[in-house]
Predict the structure of RNA polymerase.
Amino acid sequence: MRSVTDVRETETAEPERARIRAGDRAAFGELYDRHARAVYNHALRLTGNWAEAEEAMSETFLAAWRTRESVDPEGGSLKPWLLGIATHKAYNANRGLRRRLAFLARSPEPRPVEDFAEETAGRIDDARRLALVHRALGRLKRQDREVFALCVSAGLDYQQAAEALGVPVGTVRSRLSRARARLARLSAEAEPPPAHGEMESEAALAALFLREETR
């Protein structure tokens, strides 16, 4: 069942598409306000890094503005289009991060710096949790991870995810089924949580994370 938001977006999609294609800056600003959080959250789930997610979000909307004339005049919400761009930007961000990490691994050890533990203590748990989630999703194949993030996290249906990725609906279905089966196996193989009740299972953390907004 579609939400009220989905229905409203469908009702206004065609005039919005025309305005976006025409370079209407006000319409593009409205598009940003409506979908920036979803784009950021999607990028965060794929990159596992707040800074990389911010960069991917910025690049997504920049690319969307530059390629606005490619938007199909007819169709529903532009959210799948934006998330499709974000998927590619997140992948590029991950590649860039790997290159930087490889460079740092070859560099001399940095000098000791001042301890900022008190200032960052409030973010340690979030960072650890995000790392575990990203590690769990990282065990999926790239294509399966992207479909899982689009359908389960971002809430796109099969047709919208297919539009975002430029693949057939059947491909989306098979990739999502494979991703769910893989995470189910991870969850079944995971060790029981510690006595104090913290969720340590990567798969369990992934499931929890995917149900929440992160910004």
Summary: The chain has two domains: 1-113, 123-215. Confidence is low (pLDDT under 50) at residues 96-106, 115-122, 194-200, 208-215.
